[in-house]
Amino acid sequence: MRRGVMFAGAAVVLAACMTAGLMVGAAGLPLKGVVLALADRLPFVSAHSGLTSLETGVLFELRLPRVLLGAMVGGLLAVAGAGYQGVFRNPLADPYLLGAAAGAGLTVTLVIVAVGDGAAVPLAAFCGAAGGVLLAYGLGHTATRGGGTATLVLAGVAVTSFLTAVQTFLQQLKVEELQRVYAWILGDVGGGWEQVVMCAPYAVVAAAILLLHGRLLDVLSVGDDEASSLGVRAGRVRLVVLVAASLATAAAVSAGGLIGFVGVVVPHAVRRLAGGSYRVVLPLSLLAGGAFLVTADLIARTVLAPAELPIGVVTAFVGAPFFVTILRATRKVET
């Protein structure tokens, strides 16, 4: 019953944040009008919202895809972060640990510098993020037989350093494109329906796989020997979770850019509130991550209106102090 109450509460919070995201902006929309306009799009439902054609266009062409994309990207980053933390047994692990951010940053920089086609950026980011993780995993697997978690982390650091160096070199070749590169790096969820449609299939598959592995991650948390005695193949579980978390990260990066701290802050806050069981942490992180990023985007759109603040700046303002708190708490536990 307690678990059901927590899930229901998280769903209500997400719905409230999404509703606020639909209502608030440069042109305010009434709650009743938004609800009736959304209901009117449902099958077998007819409702008069009272919104003008301009307001309806703002709702369905600008705000609704933005809110949906923000919820998807935030949920994917948070659930991927929780998955990484379960695999590496470290609350500071995040979705960019194995080179996803560096890979995406390199390919996006390459597309902007060499091609100049903004339409190719999402695909380039997805391929780069997936490629960075595959490179780190391959390097870690070949360095030591079996590729332990410590080796994977070191491989991720090496790949990240190398790819970041190549990205910096490319940026220096065409300095005039730096603004476009950094605008993407700081994050944006205003890509429209095209980004929502592109991201949704990967989001569903990755989230489903991670949620189905909550019980197995709980078993892994007691140790590999104990997990083996219970019939759980630790190596296989880690590989599946890493692949799913990396897929979620690649999809999120391709749709929203390199938005930091979501994958660390949200799972840690959920763990503090709801306990350490991954059967609870994973679904709550998915919901809370969506609510967190939708709220961050709302702040980014309104705090300097009519100008917009990059969403990555907002998450950093919230995440950096929280990250310090995590570090201090971890240090107290170790001592």
TrEMBL record:
Q: Which PROSITE patterns match?
A: PROKAR_LIPOPROTEIN
Location of this chain's protein in the cell: Cell membrane
Q: Which InterPro entries match?
A: ABC_BtuC-like (IPR037294), ABC_transptr_permease_BtuC (IPR000522)
Could you state a single Gene Ontology molecular function term?
Answer: transmembrane transporter activity
Gene Ontology cellular-component annotations: plasma membrane
Keywords annotated in UniProt:
Cell membrane, Membrane, Transmembrane, Transmembrane helix, Transport
Any transmembrane segments, and where?
A: 63-84, 96-115, 121-140, 152-173, 239-266, 278-299, 311-330
Topological relation to the membrane, as annotated: Multi-pass membrane protein
Q: So which residues are the signal peptide here? A: none
Q: Return the SUPFAM superfamilies for the record.
A: ABC transporter involved in vitamin B12 uptake, BtuC
> Taking the first listed entry, what is the main subcellular location of this protein, grouped into a coarse class?
membrane
Q: Name one Pfam family in it.
A: FecCD
Q: Of which family is this protein a member? A: Belongs to the binding-protein-dependent transport system permease family. FecCD subfamily.
**Protein name, entry field:** Iron chelate uptake ABC transporter family permease subunit
